[in-house]
Structures are given as structure tokens and as C-alpha cells.
Design goal:
- The chain has 329 residues and is mainly β.
- The chain is 6% helix and 33% strand.
- A 10-stranded parallel beta sheet has the order 1-2-5-8-11-14-17-20-23-26.
- Strand 1, helix 1 and strand 2 form a beta-alpha-beta unit.
- The longest helix has 9 residues, at 307-315.
Length: 329
């Protein structure tokens, strides 16, 4: 069977990746306007290190000349207009994770993140007020807190073709009920594989979230959770339950400027529920989910949730053994 995924053509040229995201993060250009920065050292810091490239203020397209593991002693802060491009090498980040703080136009592609330790240690932490972010083809597993957290007014973010495994609290969107300013958050998650992760695929407060063509299987508590004022549009995803059968969960919380506590809403369109999965949709849920992706972007690559799509997502998500494309005009 020939396996293809959206925008496979971007691997023909290094910088063709920029601007190719679908969904809310589609405007992310990363470091396309800057020179190449070559990571030549697997040390946590110093000349030729990933940290040295990420802290620089100018636009950079960061590529790797070495494969191996980078042990982060502290969060690695990524500044604006950066592409961290792991194509052509096998690069794993461990110890801590990436922090995207008050930055914009960041692309993170083809990395492994595993084994983050410590309080509040996430694989990729996006807060506060970051925007135009694209996370593509990354493998994330086994962190002490979340794998990806998107909070504190960070918005216009796409997560695509990623693989999540060996973890509890997978993706959090919207951090706390008092943070009603998170109503601005908009996130697209598509063509991702959630492989036996326990919960939060994602858990959402306040935000508008478009989920399509993801494969979520064998969760431990729930697949997707809608909490205070969230609007989730779930389209043509595959939900495959293990012991826990209900896919959608609702939690009631109170926004600080509202008199009464409330939950979120899920609109399910074309989703496939297999192996005895119960959707768990609230009867009025879809009617109150007024958000539709077409209000924000004109097109996206979506297909029916078939056995072919399931196999594609099993084999072609997360870090991929692809060569680094040439940097040609």
C-alpha cells in the first residue's frame, strides 16, 4: 500500500516547509528569512549547541550535523523566527523540554522528546502570548508533566503528524479556569497518533480547537475533554477504546466573569468510534458549538477515517527517517 500524508512535497526543498502548515498555525514561517545555523555539538550549551542557536534574536533555520541525545539541564527557550529542523538526523531531547515564551513564528520538526523530569516539566511549553507555532512530525513520551501545554493567551498553533505515547497528561489547552483571557486560543491538531496515552487528547478550556484525522486508541481515562467554554470541532477522527469506552468527557468549571459554572462543547462530524467506543456526547453539545473551522481558514486536508488512514497514522507519525532536503532556491 502506498502511504502518503498531506504536504509530503515539502521534503523536496529545505525551506519549503515554511508556511505549509494547515489550520490555525498555517502562517508560521519559522526562520525562513534567516541563514542556516548548524548544530555541531550535543552539549547542553556552548558554541554549536541547539541552545546557542535558539537564544539568538535573528531569524535562523536550525539544522543538525550530528545525531544523538541532548540532555537539557534547564528549559530550552526558543526565540521568535526559528525553525528547529531535525530532518536528516536522529535527535532526542531529554531531561527538560522546550519553552516558547512570548515568541512568534516558530516551527519544530522531526525531533524526539523523551524523559523530562521535574515539577512543571513539559515536553513543549507554549506560554505566554506566543503565536504562529507549528509542531510537525515529533515523537513525544514520558514527561513528568505534560507533553504539550498551550496556555496564557498563546494562539494560532498547529500540531500535526506527531506521535504521543507512554504518558499520562498529554496535551493541555487553556491552563486554569480563572484565566478567561485564554478565550483567544485557537489550535488545530491533525494526523496525530495518540498511542495508549492516558488522557488529554486534548483537554481544553476556553479555546477553539479543530481536531481532524487523528487516531486515538486505548486511553486510560478519556480521549478528549471539554471544559469551561471550550469549543471542539472533532472531524473524521478514529477513536478506538480499550478498557475505558467513553471518548468525550465534560468537566464543569467557573469562569471568573460568569455567575454560573459551565462546561465546554464538542461537535463530532464523521468520527469513527470502534471496538465498542461510546462517543459520550452531550445531547445539546453540538448545537452550542458555534465554532466552525471554515470561519478561520478556507481549506484543509481531511479524509474519511478508514483502515488505510489508521495504518498511515501508525507508520508515518512522529520522528521520520527522512533525509535533510537541499537548501536551494
Amino acid at each position: 500500500m502506498v502511504i502518503t500524508l498531506p504536504y509530503a512535497h515539502v521534503d523536496c526543498n529545505l525551506r519549503a516547509l515554511a508556511g505549509q502548515a494547515e489550520g490555525f498555525g498555517r502562517h508560521a514561517i519559522g526562520g525562513v528569512r534567516g541563514p542556516l545555523y548548524h548544530v555541531t555539538s550535543l552539549l547542553d550549551d556552548g558554541p554549536g549547541s541547539l541552545r546557542d542557536g535558539c537564544r539568538r534574536k535573528e531569524p535562523l533555520w536550525i539544522v543538525f550535523e550530528v545525531s544523538g541525545t541532548i540532555h537539557l539541564r534547564s528549559f530550552l527557550s526558543v526565540s521568535s523566527y526559528k525553525t528547529i529542523d531535525g530532518r536528516g538526523q536522529t535527535v532526542k531531547l531529554t531531561g527538560k523540554g522546550l519553552r516558547l515564551k512570548e515568541c512568534e513564528h516558530v516551527i519544530i520538526c522531526n525531533l524526539e522528546l523523551e524523559g523530562g523530569r521535574g515539577d512543571d516539566v513539559d515536553g513543549i511549553q507554549i506560554k505566554p502570548k506566543s503565536k504562529h507555532i507549528w509542531i510537525d512530525r515529533c515523537s513525544l513520551r514520558d514527561y513528568d508533566d505534560g507533553l504539550i501545554d498551550i496556555t496564557r493567551e498563546s494562539t494560532d498553533i498547529t500540531i500535526s503528524r506527531c506521535r504521543f505515547s507512554q504518558h499520562d497528561k498529554t496535551i493541555l489547552i487553556g491552563g486554569h479556569p480563572p484565566q478567561s483571557s485564554d478565550r483567544c486560543i485557537r489550535v488545530t491538531i491533525h494526523h496525530c497518533f495518540f498511542d495508549g496515552t492516558r488522557q488529554r487528547h486534548p483537554r481544553v478550556r476556553f479555546a477553539k480547537v479543530h481536531l481532524y484525522n487523528n487516531y486515538t486508541r486505548n486511553w486510560g481515562i478519556y480521549a478528549v475533554c471539554a471544559s469551561v467554554e471550550s469549543q471542539i470541532y472533532s472531524q473524521c477522527n478514529i477513536y478506538e477504546a480499550g478498557e475505558k469506552k467513553v471518548a468525550f468527557k465534560y468537566l464543569t468549571e467557573k469562569a471568573p466573569d460568569k455567575e454560573k459554572a459551565g462546561t465546554g462543547y464538542v461537535k463530532s462530524e464523521g468520527d469513527l468510534f470502534t471496538t465498542g467506543t461510546q462517543a459520550g456526547l452531550m445531547s445539546e453539545s453540538g448545537e452550542h458549538c458555534k465554532f466552525h473551522p471554515s470561519e478561520y481558514y478556507p481549506e484543509w486536508t481531511v479524509e474519511a477515517p478508514t483502515a488505510k488512514l489508521k495504518k498511515t497514522l501508525q507508520h508515518c507519525t512522529g520522528w521520520q527517517c527522512v533525509p535533510r532536503p537541499a537548501d536551494t532556491v
